[in-house]
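Pilot study result, target chain (193 residues):
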Amino acid sequence: MLGLKLVTDPRWVNIVESNIEEILTDHAWCEQKAASNAISLITQNSEKEELVTELVLIAQEEIEHFKMVHDLIKERGLTFGRERKDSYVNELFKFMKKDGSRNDALCERLLFSAMIEARSCERFKVLSENIKDQKLAKFYRDLMISEANHYTTFLGFARKYADNVDVDKRWKEWIEFETSIITNYGKNETVHG
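Predicted structure:
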């Protein structure tokens, strides 16, 4: 369904389990950034009523996810650390086309967002199926479903607002690029690391 060419090696979960505090802190910041991304898209495209309506819901959901992860950190007596740099997301950001019309830029941003949601969904699936902590397994299963919905929403809006962009062709380029960089990740106890 996600179209990703490379799946995460389940052994990544062993790395995650060695430092639950780190994965939860990183995950919380990922949710905060996802909420900020939705708000930024609203700010830049306020005239697109349908998009704004959906993005408000996504922003609310992402900030609720942030709260849920933060609550888990507190419940476990862990420390919520400082924001982490996300090299994976930064590499994806550099792949975004910066030229073209305002609508072309919107399509790129939506495809960028869809790609992050797709990989996050895939990582949450791997966590839900392989982590020994049953509470976290259920938690990540529930979030996986949410991320899949966000992925399809972003991809759907990219198709809706495309003027001069062949979204299916461009999405394949995004998939190819993501495939070329994902092999550098899956070695750290972070969502995309």
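One observation from the pilot: The first helix runs from residue 12 to 17. A full batch analysis is planned for the follow-on phase.
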